[in-house]
Amino acid sequence: MATVGRTVGGGGLGATERRDAWWLGPLATAVALGSFVVYATFRAIYNAQYRGGIGTDTLPDHAYLLSPFFSPLIVLPWLPKWISPAFLILWAPGGFRVTCYYYRKAYYRAFFLDPPGCAVGEPRGHIYWGETRLFLFQNLHRYFLYFALLFLVILTIDVIHSCIWPTAAGGRTFGLSVATLVLAANVTLLTLYTFSCHSLRHLVGGNVDCFSCVALGQARYNAWRCAGALNEHHMLFAWLSLFSVGFADFYVWMVVSGRIADLRIL
To answer: Which residues contact 33 (CB under 8 A, 6 or more apart)?
Structure first.
């Protein structure tokens, strides 16, 4: 159990009476989030080897694969080729995570040291302005939720496409590969992360004072209870889904580039 302490009188960054390694959490968070941002930015700028299979110039005998960083694939002929399709869609899932209640706590501590930990001094002392001025954009989280729900449908369609393989006769047949499992696992974890969202829990029942007094009250009550149960593990789903979406892109990249072969299971 972490040692409970209090901020040393006079304040100042890092001032505390805690004797535990309180800085490990913010450091690990900064490394993990920073690494993901660097990787995702690199892949978007790299702008290649993000799809293959049916209908593409690579892996013609494979089912269609598309990286979740580029899905849905939006190609606008009038845009310069150096503008990656990823930039046209990553703002939506990225905005959902940036404004997420859990991620706010995580990156406020890791990058802004605001505060770096419980009972640990911060740069601005005891002055607290809340999420005002520039940080008012955090209120957009409830709207980014709708985009996140839409993306779950789109990514599920990508999983279905990864199950449709070409045949030697020119037809189509059902098949499963490791890529299918990777994409399906990613959608599952993203669904758990989205459905455990505080805003979704509020949307389905958090704003209702009497479930028996509204239409579909029992159904909304059950949905609210399920969202509440998932919400208890929101932090876990946030990290697992962040890893899964990065790994799904990496796996598609490796398969499309020919660095690894995608093992077909069925």
So the answer is: 103, 106, 107, 110, 111
Nearest Cα neighbor of 22 from 6, 2, 39 is 2
19-41 tens-digit pLDDT: 788 888 889 999 999 999 999 99
Those residues whose C-beta lies under 8 Å from the C-beta of residue 198, and which sit 6 or more positions away, are: 101, 231, 234
- Per-residue pLDDT tens over the stretch 147-186: 999 999 999 999 999 999 999 898 999 999 999 999 999 9
Asked whether 228 and 198 are in contact (CB, 8 A), the reply is no
Within a 13 Å sphere around the CA of 206, how many CA atoms are in the beta-carbon half? 13
DSSP 139: G
How far, in Å, CA of 38 to CA of 41, rounded? 5
Instruction: Write out the two tokens for 226.
Output: 């399920």
Burial category of 168 from C-beta neighbours within 10 Å (exposed 0-12, middle 13-18, buried 19 and up): exposed
